[in-house]
Amino acid sequence: MPSQKPRLVNLELDLLRAFVAVAEARSFTRAGARLGRTQSTVSLQIKRLEESVNAELFSRDPRNVTLTVHGEALLVQARRLLRLNDEIIGEMFEHSLEGEVRFGAPEDFATTHLPGILGDYARAYPHVSLSVTCDLTLRLMDKMSQGELDLALIKREPMGAELGVRVWREELVWVGAGEDVLPAGAPVPLVVAPAPCVYRKRATAALDAVQRPWRIAYTSPSLAGQQAALRAGLGVTALPSEMVPDDLIRFGVDHGFPALAEIEIALVRASKTLPVAAERLANFILASLDAAGAHET
Q1: What is the pTM assigned to this prediction?
Q2: Which fold has domain 172-261?
């Protein structure tokens, strides 16, 4: 008998958009509010998508909605398809999309991971005014609560979907100019951002855990200011592994430094329903960070 031809499946983008919304919100109800649909409609869409791909995408219980292994694999590809769709629509029909998107991000993350993403967005929607604010997470959240931002990437403790969608995890390492900045028998001099700062909290908590004394030697809200202090030999700090300058060295267990726990970068929305231009930027960021190796929700 001739072998049976594989079934040809065409994925519906509306179903994928509903799937991504549920994955990010971890709730059918919250996803429905974001999409302007009822919870039952979203549930039906997910059921149809699961039938199309012949796989269960979510594990459900009365309190939680979590991705299955198949769901995690689909999420990355779904965001890529939605971004491609949005780019095509933008080129053909929405090239004249206008408005302003107010976006916030931590300075270090903005300078390393975002330039290409924001450039692609600006080229796809040249008539949208993109206003970018680089600041500490606490200040970004204040601006969002005051209605001054539409979207923001923030640093946070590992958590669920209560505060944004996790898009990245950062491995932190100890950094300084050289061993001579660590005087024997003296507290560790720290170069940090003002409190509250997740990097600062990670550094002090790790040293406290091993009972190694420390002191705040230099405080600066800017990454450039902190790096200048490090190069001047004023102390050490905790930085994401990818952001360590070539002229600085890393300290580890051989120098008496404990391991540092990871932190998360999350995308936070000002409201459940964003203007079209802001929603397009959210899709760009999520799809691009997925492609770059980010960790999914």
Answers
A1: 0.63
A2: D-Maltodextrin-Binding Protein; domain 2 (3.40.190)
